[in-house]
């Protein structure tokens, strides 16, 4: 059973070429996973400081860090599986950094939006949806990566929010972009959680 998240980007020529390069350089996938945490810390720091110092630049850098985090998340899997460099601790390094990275970005986005409670709520919901996916897997079910607000969608909206917020800062328009984006992420995460719970319940019922 393949429990990896289905990603079309994984089969793109540039992604395969980068993975082959990392394998040739013998870069361990666990190090790539840790690099993802590093980009998340940097991006989160940019978000926290964005309402005080050069907000447009910092918001743009935060968006770049979100995408670099996702790149690390994809590359560690490619190097581990296709490159044959998976370690005994690979599953830990695959899951735990993801939860840390999600929480860092969403909580710091809440502070950037001056609604820290909303950022914390988004982080809790993100962890909960991941828990439901893993819980289904622990029951012997195929892990359910359904949305509408799984990790790729959360990070897409956060990237979009950072870029739009940076543009708003440049234009001087008082539009609470990040607040709106976080509400979308929170609402979508609730729907995602409900869908995953229903999937677990239906699958469990069919087995009885």
Q: Give the structural class.
A: mainly alpha
Low-confidence parts lasting 5 or more residues at pLDDT below 50? none
Q: Give the amount of beta strand, in percent.
A: under 5%
Continuous helix count: 7
Number of domains: 1
Helix content: over 70%
CATH architecture identity: Up-down Bundle
Query: CATH class, anyone?
Result: Mainly Alpha
Query: The biggest beta sheet, please?
Result: none
Distance between the termini: 21 Å
- What's the Cα radius of gyration? 18 Å
Number of strands: 0
Overall form: globular
Short description:
This protein is an all-alpha fold. The chain has seven helices and no strands.
Descriptive report:
The chain has 208 residues and is mostly helical. The protein has a single domain (9-207), classed as CDP-alcohol phosphotransferase transmembrane (TM) domain (Four Helix Bundle (Hemerythrin (Met), subunit A)). The protein is 76% helix and 0% strand. It contains seven helices and no strands. The longest helix is centred in the last third of the chain and has 31 residues, at 177-207.
Features:
globular, Four Helix Bundle (Hemerythrin (Met), subunit A), 7 helices, about 210 residues, mainly alpha
Secondary structure layout plus pairing:
Elements: H1 13-24, H2 29-49, H3 55-81, H4 90-112, H5 116-138, H6 151-171, H7 177-207
